[in-house]
Amino acid sequence: MSKLFLLSVTFLLAGMLHAQTVIKPAVGLNLTDWTYDDASGEFKARPGWQVGGSVAFGKKIYVEPGIFYTGKATDFIVTNSSSGFDEFKADLTGIRVPVGVGLNLVGHEKTMFGLRGFGGFSGFFVTGVSDDIEKDDVNSAQWGTFAGVGLDIWLIFLDMSYEWSLTNVQKDVSQIDFGKTRTFYLNAGIRIKL
Fold first, then answer.
1. Is-contact 73 42, C-beta < 8 A?
2. Suppose 144 and one of 31, 66, 165, 190 were both cysteines; which one would form an S-S bond, judging by CB atoms 3.0 to 4.6 Å apart?
């Protein structure tokens, strides 16, 4: 069994080395909302940010792992002020590691214009929280799935994606359940073809 696995990994790596490789450094903005819905208040997304990059392997169909340092910003607005506060900041910072599979829908590596569709899974590893949240109450690893579209114009790309978290934000949901995150990402950068 291990020999079959090792042989499969070897063929996959060999195929990736012969495939087109594109390095994609990027910066971007995000909007994060939480699924919590209660009469006492609601979450409102604020602009967040990310910086990092990815590497795409393949031509028509490609695999694209990436790594981004990400800040997600959200406010909780209290509609029932009997709790003693009107709002708190629910900000998270961490490392996001998306791994996607995409399809070049229009264009190819030699055209000036391309349109792509992609989707995959991601991990978000929390490194910091805002003062209004206790870091020990937050799941340090949060898993998600995402889908999006990308536009390539010469050496520049623009990717838009939407991510659904599969993990609750907080560890203990018995006291209060803020739910999961939902995040819209917009990344822009350059494509460096190898």
1. no
2. 165
Contact 148, 107 (CB under 8 A): no
Tokens of 8: 């499969």
Tokens of 130: 């805002």
Residue 119, judged by CB atoms within 10 A of its CB (0-12, 13-18, 19+), counts as middle
Pairing of strands 92-106, 87-89: unpaired
d(CA 148, CA 119): 6
Cα dihedral 77, 78, 81, 84 sign: negative
92-106 and 181-190 strand pairing: unpaired
At the top level of CATH, the class of 20-193 is: mainly beta
> How many residues can be counted in the chain?
194
Q: What is the pLDDT of residues 74-103, one digit of tens each?
A: 887 777 666 555 777 888 999 999 999 999
- Show Cβ contacts of residue 174 under 8 Å, excluding neighbours closer than 6 positions: none
Q: Do residues 166 and 131 make contact, with C-beta atoms less than 8 angstroms apart?
A: no
Q: Cα(54)–Cα(68) distance, rounded to whole angstroms?
A: 8
**pLDDT per position as a tens digit, 30-88:** 999 887 766 667 778 899 999 999 999 998 999 999 999 999 998 877 776 665 557 77
